[in-house]
Specification:
With 106 residues, the protein is an alpha+beta fold. Helix content is 19%, strand content 45%.
């Protein structure tokens, strides 16, 4: 299992390399990244069991305050959490029906 040092939003951490484009991010790092004040948070989607509602609100896509995904950390172990060196971003999915992308602020 290969590990690489990654620095994102001023936080340095050790990530497990899944492949050249995906490094697993420890959950405790997500909390540090979100409270750093150096990230932009974007909700990619939030699906519910109400398809009409989802269509009406465009799956709740859009920019969110970093405190929003911080609250989702309380849901338990995330379904997916990885760093992409290609895009220099973190993808965080607290569950299959909810996904965020974090990028560093300029």
């Amino acid at each position: 299992m290969e590990r690489r040092k990654v620095t994102f939003a001023g936080i340095t951490f050790s990530a497990i390399v899944r492949d050249d484009e995906h490094y697993t991010v420890p959950v405790n790092v997500i909390r540090k990244v979100l409270t750093s004040g150096r990230v932009h948070a974007h909700r990619n989607y939030h699906y519910t069991d109400d398809y009409a509602h989802d269509a009406k609100v465009n799956n709740d896509k859009g920019d969110v305050d970093p405190s929003v995904p911080l609250g989702d950390l309380e849901l338990g172990k995330p379904w997916l959490c990885y760093f992409s060196p290609k895009t220099n971003s973190i993808r965080f999915c607290p569950m299959q029906s909810l996904a965020y992308t974090f990028t560093e602020k300029p």
